[in-house]
Write a structure and sequence with these properties.
Arc Repressor Mutant, subunit A, 2 strands, mainly alpha
Amino acid sequence: MWFYIDFHSHVPIYQQIKDNIKSLIIAGKLRPGEFVPSIRSLAQDIGVNLNTVARAYKELEAEGVIRAERGEGYVVVGVNVEDLKNQALDELRKTVEKCLKVGLSFQEIQNYIQEVFKDGAQG
């Protein structure tokens, strides 16, 4: 398996597939011009329905991240890293605002973010 899917996550599987592919592109493990695994192959590797992978690929294609090559599969086009960073910061802002509304303090939020960084450095 070339990336991990968390079947217990609240994040839909197709979204996890999209996020993983984008991360692999950003990390340089998938480069523009390279083919991603076929829908059937990836579905089998990670143990999900073909339609789940097809949905992820269709959305990635609509976003311009991959492109269908007739009779050959999907090829990486690339990602706009600045757009991804801006989207992530927007999500973070909404999450922090939600945390503040439920009564979490700045210190509690900061401690949690430090934990996330620590866990990310280890994994």
